[in-house]
Amino acid sequence: MCAAFLGLRSGNSYAAPITFNTALPVSQEEFIFRELVTVGKASDSFGGLGRKMTVVTATTVMAYGVTSKLALFGVVPVTFKELQTQEGKRDANGVGDARLVARFTVYRKDAVGKTYRIAPFIGVKAPTGDDTRTDELGLLPASLQPGTGSWDVFGGLIATYASVDWNLDIQASYRANTRAGDFERGDVARADASFQYRLLPRTLSRHDKGYVYGVLEANLVHQNEARMGGVLDPNSGGTTLYLVPGVQYATRRWIAEMALQLPVIQDLNGSALERDFTVLAGLRVNF
């Protein structure tokens, strides 16, 4: 789940995670808009197959604070996918699967200049993207389709500690992928952590307009093998650990951010494509 409702925050000067969500609140009756663009590259660890894949996704997120504890998130991605092989190029683009997420704060403890929050979330992914795209070779593989064709559910728990100098966010989540036709993607479990440290200005004053944060995140993602016609695909699924260095400029009304997601451990099954890197750039505005 490219993390897309991810990292939305309330109307303050705190930074936030780039690749996943935060437990910081969305103020009641406040909207938050986020646009996140990602460019990902993957290639064949078995060089003889000569496969290279590029995925570009623009994800639009809208959040609304229903109450001081309950926030709703709507997520709509638009994606372009291209797979190059020795036989040629195959590609597809279009609107992907939309998601609706509810996040509820169950614990908060505030003090001068800091806060601690715990918030579970639950969501559903609707099959709004097309999963039947074809080209001259026939039906495109599932990895190239803009959508999945399945209704999926996911949920998790987020803990956030935020202060005037640094923030720490930790998340655990699970997504249950259901069957669409003869194909079923493997379920996904992940654990995420994000540390954001204020770099500038080093000394706070009442005249500060914005803050530069250095960000370091880790994403541990495990996906079960997919099934085709009830049979496990031995070239799917596996475990990957990513490190994500990034930078944010945060003001009271908006955040601009960039990051680079790098795989440091990849334990994938069979001939599954290995991630090379993903570049992320985003802007979020609360109003």
Percent strand equals over 45%
Shape: globular
Low-pLDDT residue intervals, each spanning 5 or more residues: none
Number of helices: 0
Distance between the termini: 26 Å
Q: State the name of the first-level CATH class.
A: Mainly Beta
Order of H and E elements: EEEEEEEEEEEEEEEEEEEE
Q: Could you report the average pLDDT, rounded to the nearest whole number?
A: 92
- In CATH terms, what is the architecture? Beta Barrel
Total beta strand runs: 20
Helix content range of the residues, please? Answer: under 10%
The CATH topology is given as Lipocalin
Number of domains: 1
SSE class: mainly beta
What's the CATH superfamily, by name? Autotransporter beta-domain
- The whole-angstrom Rg is 19 Å
List the helices and strands and how they pair.
Layout: E1 31-43, E2 52-65, E3 70-85, E4 88-95, E5 99-104, E6 107-111, E7 114-125, E8 134-135, E9 138-139, E10 152-163, E11 166-176, E12 179-180, E13 183-184, E14 188-200, E15 211-223, E16 227-228, E17 231-232, E18 238-250, E19 254-268, E20 274-286
Antiparallel strand pairs: 1-2, 1-20, 2-3, 3-4, 3-5, 5-7, 6-7, 7-10, 8-9, 10-11, 11-14, 12-13, 13-16, 14-15, 15-18, 16-17, 18-19, 19-20
